[in-house]
Structures are given as C-alpha cells and as structure tokens.
Amino acid sequence: MIEKSTDFPCSFVIFGATGNLATKKLLPALCRLEEAGRLPEVMRFIAIGRREWDDVAWSAHLQSLLQERLQDRFDPEVCQRFIGRFSYLRGELHDVEMYHRLGAMLAEPRSGVCSNVIFYLSIKPTDFPSVIKNLDKSGLSKPRGLHQVVVEKPFGEDIESAQALNRLLHEHFDEQQIFRIDHYLGKDTVQNLLVFRFANTLIEPLWNRNFIDHIQITAAETMGIENRADYYDKAGALRDMLQNHLMQLLTVVAMEPPPVLDADALRDEKVKVLRSIRPIGKRSVHAHAFRAQYAAGSINGQNVASYQAEPGVEPKSITETFVAAKFYIDNWRWRGVPFYLRTGKRLKEGKSMVAIRFRHPPQQLFRSTPLDVVSPNWIILSIQPEDCMRMEVHVKQPGLEMNTRVISLNATYRKEDEKALDAYETLLLDVINGDRTLFIRFDEVEWAWRVVDPILKSWAMERDFIHTYPAGSWGPLEANRLFDAEDQEWRNAL
Ligand code: BG6
Predict the structure, then answer these.
(1) Nearest to 340 by CA among 484, 154, 444, 244
(2) Disulfide check for 358: which of 80, 237, 377, 436 has CB 3.0–4.6 Å away?
(3) What separation in Å is there between the alpha carbon of 369 and the centre of ligand 1?
(4) Cβ of 221 less than 6 Å from ligand 1
(5) pTM exceeds 0.70 for this model
(6) Does the annotation mark 214 as catalytic?
C-alpha cells in the first residue's frame, strides 16, 4: 500500500487536458480542492494537449474555464495559486518523443517532486494502450510502486478488450498503482446508500424480496453528446453509462453488508452481486434490453437537433442514446425482484435516482371503503440534481370519510450552509492520498461486461434499425415492454 498524506509531494499529469472531461469535471474539482487547502504543498500539474499553446496561453484558457465553471465560487486568489502550479506540454499521445519531453519536465529541479507521479488518462479509451506503452518506452512507468495511473471508464469496449487492457496495464503497473475510476462512486448519495442501508436498523429488514416489488435505477440527462461524437458514436449509452455507472449503483443497492468497511471487503460484496445476475440468454435479449436514439425535439423550450444531425455522428448511425434493461439477481435476498435500469441523453429532465417500490400490503383491508386500491410505498434516493431521500407513505385524510393520501417524508442530507461536493473532488483527493476504496477492481469491470455482453453481441448483429424518441421526452413507450407486471411503470418524478 502506498503510504501518503496530503503533504506528500507529487506531480499530476493530465492527458487530454483540453478535453471535455478535464474541462467540465477535473480542473474545476482540482481547483476546489485548492480552495479547500487539500492539495499537497508541493504539487505541480502538467497539462498535456494537442493545441499549439505555451504556458501563457494555457493559463489564460484555464483561467477562463474556471471562471465559467466555478461561477460564484470563483476566487481569483485561489485560482492564481492553482494556475501557478501548471505547465503545459504540447504533444501527440502516440508520439514517444512527447513522453521524453514529459520525462525531462518531471525531472526539472523546479519540480523536485518527480518521485511520485499521477498519470490521469482523461482521454478516449481507444488511446489508453498507446499512452500506457509510451509511458513504458520512455521509462515513465518506473519505478513501480510510486507512480499511479488513473484510468477513466469505459474500461475496454467489451469483455475481451477490457481483459487485454488490464493485461497491458499489469505489464507496466502493479494493481495498487491502478485507479479505475467510476465517478458515480464518488457521489455523496451513493456513499450515503451504504450508510442508509447499514446504519439504520429500520431499513435493513425490509431490503429484500419479501417486501420489495422492484427497483428502478435512472440516470436521465437533458444534454446531448456535446462534441463527443468521436467517442460516443462508437460507445453508445450501454457502454458509456449502463455498464459502469448504473451497474455500480445496482451493486451498492443490492450488496450484502461487508464484514468491514475496507476497499477489498466492499468490492468482494459488489462482485458477488454481479456474479449472481442471471445471464441473459441469446433469445431473451429483447425481453431484457431496449435501445433507442433521440430524434429532433425541444428541451426547455429550445429546439434541438437529432442525434444523427450532431456534428461528427455518422449520418445513418444506429448508436443508442437511450437504454433500458432488466436484470434479476439470483440470490437469497433478491430472487424474483426485477431491477430496471435506464439511462438516456436528451430526455425531459436531468435526474439520477434509485427508486424502490415496495409490495402491496398482503390484505386489502380498505376494500369496502371509498378507497381505491392502495398504491404501494416508494423510497426514492435522489442522486441529482437534489441529493435527498424521500419515503412515500399513506395517511388518512382528516375528515369523516375513510380516504387516504400519500405523503412524502423528505430528508435532505445536506444542511443549507453545507456545500455540495462534486464526485471528482472526493475521488481526486483519494487518488492523491492513495486510497482505492472508491475505485473499481478489475473483477468488477469484468463481471459487469459479462452481464451486458449478450446485449452488446445481439445489438451488433442488428445494424439496420433503431427506435427513436423525440428529444425532450422520457424515451420511447416501447421501453415499457420490459416490465414484468401491468402495475409497474417508469418512475419519472421524484
Ligand atoms: C460520464 C459519461 O461518465 O458521465 C457522460 O461519459 C455523462 O456521457 C456523464 O454525461 C454523467 O455524469 P453526471 O455526474 O453528470 O451524472
């Protein structure tokens, strides 16, 4: 285990520093860590990009992106301190010469910190192998043990490529140096799920097939693919969101309590869940998975183009931007309970949540009253935009009649004066501190691919048709065919 603390000096190299992820998530999160005084005193960043920039041009770019992203949290003094830690390195990922220049920069006396280097691969998955090989060729993957490499998802594009990527990583890095990131695990509500389940005696006895009818996990986005066609058109929603973020949520919702709360114990339990997911047979893919693509439509009063009209997308692309899937976990706790997972771009609202629907009461005691069939209870764990928990229960309406209404017990975790943390703040700090608890072990990745592999294979054979949905809707109605029972439907509202 790498022993580190926040005053452990390090160099942090960002591959893909001008890309979408770095711009939207990494750089603002690192700057907020600077604001919170959580970056090591001696720490430098090297931003690698293809643009013909020097340090001055990079600094101007960084300053304006921080201003735009941090908005009212933008503090000029903090940002200057943060920007002052950067150097810019221009180069091509496949060009080994660039890595020699990187090596020279890391060795500059000014840094004095090259003994510990974090390489953050914020790049297209297809570029991972080239970077890893070039780090090795230029001697930068040595010494083993001190350097770390952070790999973004999706880890591979199917099970075989994930295994190949893992083998390649292991040729040059030890497992303890590898951080496979899935930023959903850094979200507060996701971590809170563990606390909610395992710190409340009230909840745990209900968390099983005897009481729960089904579980829905939704990650809905209003945004489109934002100039990421190059990556997204090959990946699609299943690889981009479901195989990783949604599967991780599923494991946290469904896992057994670990014996202790350490990285491996937790991950052992998550793997057990993935291994218990009933494999989807070739012939039942259609009953278990549904894909679709957004057509033109309107979101928040603004007309938006169809997926196929997005810059860089193949004109007749059938890449899915929406996916819904149903899984069963064949273990003692969950046998027979469907887990419905759904994600999509250009949907009506941006919202991620886990919705748990309980069974109907065993006896319809109120049948002879004016009450309709009593609707079931729900627990909603909202991840974003609000991070809160909501429990729906029935109460009697005041008055002479026997009528009920549903009330929501709302709990917002955060107090008004507590700032929301971005998942990347948590995870980047963990990388700097060498804590791998919230990172993914390879067997998790492998089992998650195994679960979705039959879907990928079947879709790869059906290349000429995809359902569409108007941008700004909740996706196609056909996705409802996954439901096991007539009284099940997608839960869109909090
Ligand atoms: C990323 C996906 O991993 O997660 C993006 O590549 C997606 O396509 C994003 O937009 C969603 O993250 P969040 O935190 O905004 O829900």
Answers:
(1) 484
(2) 377
(3) 48
(4) yes
(5) yes
(6) no
